[in-house]
Amino acid sequence: MTNRDRMNNKSNRNQQKTAEPVHLQTRKNFHSISEREPVAYGLKLKRKRSISSRAISGILSIILGLAAAAFTFVPAFRIQKPIVNGYSQINVEEISYYTGLKNLPIYQVDPEFIRISLLKRYPEIREVKINLSFPSSIEILMEQRNPVIEWDFGGSKFWIDEEGTVMKENSSDAAVIYVLANSFPGAKNRSDRKIPASFSQNVLQSIIQINKRRPEGKKLFYTYDNGFGWDSPFGYRLWLGKNGNSLDEKLKMSESIQNYFSKEEIEPDMLSLEFTHAPYYRFSE
Predict the structure, then answer these.
(1) 68/106 Cα distance (integer angstroms)
(2) Do 239 and 274 form a contact (C-beta atoms < 8 A)?
(3) 148-282 architecture in CATH?
(4) Full-prediction pTM beyond 0.70?
(5) What CATH number was assigned to the domain covering residues 76-144?
């Protein structure tokens, strides 16, 4: 092969190498142009959907805003006066004041807050239930406590239920144990006038037990110095202490001491059996 032939072959190969990229580039451009059309179409669809979603959200926001405004400002959706059942002694206007119910939109009513507020305000109520009815009705059901003891504390009275809760009011007609007192169990001193919020079950049971042994027709008394007692049929006041401990023993002792009084013609004004190991009696000064 001559040098001219070699040069011709080399030239032919170079032409093939330079031609191939031109052909491939043309095909690549053709396909890339055809692939852009569906992408652009998809973007248009997304934009249309986005515009539709925003429009719907805006409409819903307007509707909800109008509904909230209606519930807030339209009188038909505001509570004017609650319905109270179960306890007639409480003034409805007073309940509205302490709970903030008057003219309150019904969607702002918090039943648990109302329940707790009423139980704190009125200790004579055992339980409270709240029923809401659309558009503006609220019913308050109250369960009243049942007093078992009436404590006459120097002219100011309070009542005690079976759980020991102290109440300032009583609308029940049920029979109660009456106690005329100048103090109360647990008082710090003779001048202590702060009435406790509740009495313990031990105190309640002592009052009930002592009252059962009280002679018929006699009042049950309580003093800071002597505890519970009553006027005996023999003209003196019998004191049994501040609880019902050893009650049977004390009553038997009182019979024995009364026999002694009769034999010795002793007429005391009081007999204290608060401490069975150290009973004592006293004459009036």
Answers:
(1) 11
(2) yes
(3) 3-Layer(aba) Sandwich (3.40)
(4) no
(5) 3.10.20.310
